[in-house]
Amino acid sequence: MAKDLDGRAQAAQLQLQSQWQSVLAQTPLDEQALLKAMVQSQAALLADQFYAAMLDDEEARAFLSHQDVEHRLHASMQRWLIELLGLWDLSRLDECLARQRHIGLVHARIRVRVDLVMRGARRIKSGLLPLLLQAGADPALAARAALTAHQLIDLAVELMSAQYGSANDAAVRTDEAYRSHAATMNMSLERERQRNALIDWENRFLQAMMTARLDAELVRIGQCSYGLWVRHKASALFSQSSELGNILQLLDRVDQVMLPLCVAELRHGALETLRHRVAEVLSELEQLRYLTDALFDQFVHLEGGRDALTQLLNRRFLAPILSREVDLCRNTGKQFSVILLDVDHFKRVNDQHGHEAGDRLLQQLANVLVDSIRSGDFLFRYGGEEFLVVGVELNAAQALQVAEKIRLAVQAEPVALGQQQQLTMTVSLGVATHDGHPDYQRLIERADQALYRAKAAGRNCCVSAEG
Ligand SMILES: Nc1nc2c(ncn2[C@@H]2O[C@H](COP(=O)(O)OP(=O)(O)OP(=O)(O)O)[C@@H](O)[C@H]2O)c(=O)[nH]1
């Protein structure tokens, strides 16, 4: 079903592309020149008209009146018009189409309704002919040029709307895909099967090494049953998982780099070097086993929306939660903040103490975080060793205080690694407060930049995006 939808959406896009192409190819040069001259001198006025139409709508007024939005969107609206009506270069068509799709995605994210965009476009269209005539163009030529401009604007809006629709459908489809796969598969059986497939390949690899027939006999790991499962089934089932990307990279590394090295050593090398190469492959297989287990663990908990390791919220629930907070903030005027947190030098922990110790450290960190925030706040495992707090009804100064409290709590609680050993962990934090901008992605980006500054400032500190 999802595939059919994708296929249909692609066919519709190709159709729009070819229609756009023929408008560009068939428009006479005098029409092109007229539209180009008009849009270059009147883009600001047309953008004003577009916004005036949108601002008629009370809901749109709430987010369009944000100063930053007004400033940025007004400028990008002018660029959009100049590109649409002033650029008659077929070689840049792909770029132009991609831009329309991107605009559609942004609209979906900040939930600008499609009918509002169409209303703005209609206002622009109705202003075009008067502007062309006002510039002194021959009336017949002006009428033809206005018609061409209408076609281009319609095509652009259609492309945006198509993208808007698929962006909204995508989240639902992802859920459906996960659920329907889960329902039809016995996941613990599947996990066992893949474990065995990996062991099977390992045995064949060792056998091929012992009989020195690596070249002829051994199927590449990417081609064996485990590799096929990863590339086809796991990619569909676990498409949002970071482990999957790592697994694919490891498979490539084994096939492209490590096996050729083993072959070379078998032919010409010393036994000691060969042993070393084999050990390297075995260590990569161990890593694959770890990542594959993590993949399945995630799946089991995904249904509940929890991250498997830490039991915190999974980041795919971030979008609906932040959207709702943006709405609440608009209605109540109460600000909320996000705190993005990253463990310092976490790679060293894994390298020196092993992945299991790293996992334990992340679990303990999750507990400290839960204890440091209020029960109304949201806590996400944002990435591997990154966490995100959505602090509701929290202004910039309060959010910075919470971040500092978290930083001190983490530092104060060493992780027990063995009977004797303890490890003090530190974290860096970036804090950003919602400033009324409707796109929550901007808020996360600001927190991310603040976190980057905290790392650059030497780690184990908090930086606020508000300066
Ligand atoms: N044990 C464990 N390790 C993970 C997990 N997720 C990600 N990692 C590891 O976390 C490490 C993150 O390393 P980097 O991004 O280089 O950052 P860092 O070492 O923390 O350094 P800074 O962030 O610059 O202080 C990588 O080695 C990942 O493999 C997990 O769930 N468990």
TrEMBL record:
SMART domains: GGDEF. PROSITE patterns: GGDEF. Pfam families: DosC_2nd (PF21118), GGDEF (PF00990), Protoglobin (PF11563). Its EC number is 2.7.7.65. SUPFAM superfamilies: Globin-like, Nucleotide cyclase. Residues 334-467 form the GGDEF domain. PANTHER family: DIGUANYLATE CYCLASE DGCM-RELATED, REGULATORY COMPONENTS OF SENSORY TRANSDUCTION SYSTEM. This is Diguanylate cyclase DosC. It comes from Roseateles aquae.
